[in-house]
Amino acid sequence: DHCVTGVQTCALPILRIADPTVTTAVVMVNCDGAELSHVIVDGNRPSLGKPVSELYDGALIYAGGGGQGQIIQHIDAYEPRGWAVLHVSEGDPVHRCSAALIENNKIGPAGEDMARASGMVMACPNSVVRCNNITNATNVGLSAFGALGSTVEKNLIVGRESSCIASGDQEAINKALSIRLAVVELCPGAVFELSSPITFKYD
Question: Which of 11, 12, 125, 136 is 20 to 30 Å from 77 at the Cα level?
Fold first, then answer.
């Protein structure tokens, strides 16, 4: 089992954004073999607020692009001022991201009601995303669109202020279960109107 229990944050170095015009703390894009590990990355949104302009709305950690074999592990990243905590981009048709390893990280909280943010947005093909704890993202917890050939498993995604999904329609459950081996809990007393069977997806 590749999973470890939590990120040991004691005595880890902290990267904290201090300039209100800055939203991105770490840029790894287009760097083959780049590794980010054993560090706390603090977007400092509670103190600095949301970006002053849409021109400054990048993810807290920007990786991927044309980079091959990047590693992000054992980090604690939270409170982005931009649209996401972690963005692993796909690159372009000539320089494509591939074979990233993203494991054993703690991601979130992210965003607020008037400035929503996602936890992890991963579009790097042939990658592994596992054993990450993603909590209290106000937009999407984990997105893996376009990451063809990737393994996404054993990630714990906890909803905002609660680990359960409240009443709603079937789409809410199906969306949660679309992440392989994610832990999904329905709130006690919740009622969901089903139009077809709930389907667990493992591929």
Answer: 125
